[in-house]
Amino acid sequence: MPLFEGIGFTSEKTAVILDIGAAYTKCGFAGEIAPRCIIQTKIKNRSGQEVNFCKSTNPDELFELLKNFLHKLYFRHLLVNPKDRRVVICESLLAPAYFRDTLARVLFKHYEVPSVLFAPHHQLSLFTLGNSSGLVMDLGYSETLVIPIYEGIPVLKAWESVPLGGEALHSRLEKILLETATVTTDQDSEKPLSSAVSSLSEKVLEDIKVRCCFVTKLERAKLIQDNALKAHGFKEGDKSELPPPPPGVKYPLDGGKMLFIEGRIRENLCELLFEQDNEEKSVATLILDSILKCPIDMRRYMAENLVITGGTSMLPGFKARLKDELISLSEQPKYKNKLTLGEFKFHELPAKENYAAWLGGALFGALEILAGRSLTKEKYKETGLIPDWASIAKEPEAEEEKTAPLRQR
Known about the structure:
Elements: H1 3-6, E1 16-20, E2 24-29, E3 37-40, E4 43-44, E5 50-51, H2 59-78, E6 87-91, H3 97-110, E7 115-120, H4 121-127, E8 134-139, E9 144-150, E10 153-154, E11 160-162, H5 166-180, E12 182-184, E13 190-192, H6 193-196, H7 202-212, H8 218-231, E14 249-252, E15 258-261, H9 263-268, H10 283-293, H11 299-303, E16 306-309, H12 318-330, H13 333-336, H14 356-365, H15 370-373, E17 375-376, H16 377-383, H17 396-408
Parallel strand pairs: 1-6, 6-7, 8-16
Antiparallel strand pairs: 1-2, 2-3, 4-5, 7-17, 8-9, 9-10, 9-11, 12-13, 12-15, 14-15
């Protein structure tokens, strides 16, 4: 038995906090300042292959994968008995209903946890700041989601989303490297990367992105884009002189190969997040479009209370570039005639952006109100339904018992 299992034996044991993301899962205990573990959201299936169970759409298969994954969390990383502890799930408001139902079924029926609370990801991130209002942007692995929150209530009519995140960056990085990059072997012979490997693993792509790539300044990005448009004939005028690119780096691969990554690849990769698509959407326009959908008396407050979370937002230079993009876009006619904003201000989170929501869940899980907000095992067996977290109140029977003596008087 772990040492901490015996601590506080006479009182209720600390709740377990789970934040199951599209790429990584954060897990730990309520009241702590950081997760006990951050692991990939993957588990081996029946054929022995590691799969990301978040992409599974078969409820029966998902049930088995979640059962094995939670077994790994409880008995390898946390070392606790799941029957003794409440659970707080940090979930996205856009999470599929079948995933939530299957996860609840695994927790209640297989592991027999006493209660489960599904808490909104964005509200938990804001909870870490002690602020009840703000505009929260989550740059995750598969998408970027923006939701304004006012007095603890999400303004759902103003949410914005775009499928840009770590997965899109990895796909572009692999494509560019296979087309242009070169590798050097032990014999000092240089050859194209595509002739040495057919693809790069997700782990290698993420490591290259984190170690080698960064977000460039807005002035440099505009200069590079203008030259590219003039070179392809989409814009008139002479090509201006480009600033010198950052130095290239060498990245070691398996088999003694050394991959050379050019400076322009390091600098230009993250431009994908700020390039507007056919619908004029980017991670910067999401914020302005979301503010525009809010009531007019909330807009200035939202612009001055921006909260950025998600692992993709941890790229060097991202926040500075995002602020410059917001200022530049707000001067365009599309927004200037409708939005009158003073300035854009970003909150500094008390934790790293990739586990800010988990920290909010750890704070909420340490409060006495957790029991009243959670769905109990008995209630789940009666109804089989998972209500919204804000609609879970005290039991009606308990309220009637309290008011009965007053009625008798």
